[in-house]
């Protein structure tokens, strides 16, 4: 992309200078739009984003969630050889001139898109990617010569821009966490969860790999996302290499399995997975996550496997049945298993009490509120 002076034989930009983008022209809903490749170094300079003085009704974008930026920026910086960003979508408040390379045939669709430098560019989709690119460039300027696809629409006013934002996000569906874990090859704990699902006798053949919720008739007992979060909680803060983490995690879940006979009955064919999920909560995500947190505490306190395994023995006395009224308000709300942060903490507290483990100050605060009826 370059910046060129406006030719006297073409419509002039009001400033006399313009951006020139190699582009492809298309049509949607009777309106022309253009697709181009833009160097990353120019993204922060062209696509400005200033929300501070605008109220929601006169903006065409959501407020920038700055909490998302460190993770997005880290993703770019940590993966300079294989990061992937989808196209930005922008509206141009100003004239756009397209010079096709041919008057007939396919060449009519390719050419140069010229936009006056005093035009305003409004991002309809991708403001977090734009902000992450800006932050990444400050740490690694070499990324500036790489490119990202940009889709340009003509700005037809605030109402149209707001509608574009609504339409672009209306049908966006976040993929199930399980399939995200299944396809994530950067996260070592995602790899560990996949390995457990394929090799650990407790889970082999009984883990749903794509969905994060199980249908009433599913023959699976666990979801991959539940196994991921449970194992992540188990290993939180522990300094282990990959092989040691895999060995420890499998050993832990096999020890837990000895305290939960229903899991073994499913594997032997004496009970079905739907029956267990219907009548018990120990295969649900909140249970695996809570067990992982309990295990993490035991691993930090115990110096040998024999010690933490012995301290898990009282798990066999926990009544995991849905009919156990102790779960109401802890793991179950209104007859349904809930995995909110508060319910997770209350479930952990319940298990800690059975294993004679102390509560952290935050866990004690949540427990006190629960006992006062502040649910």
Automatic annotation (TrEMBL):
CDD domains: dndB. This is DNA sulfur modification protein DndB. InterPro entries: DGQHR-contain_dom, DNA_S_mod_DndB. Pfam families: DndB. Transmembrane segments: none annotated.
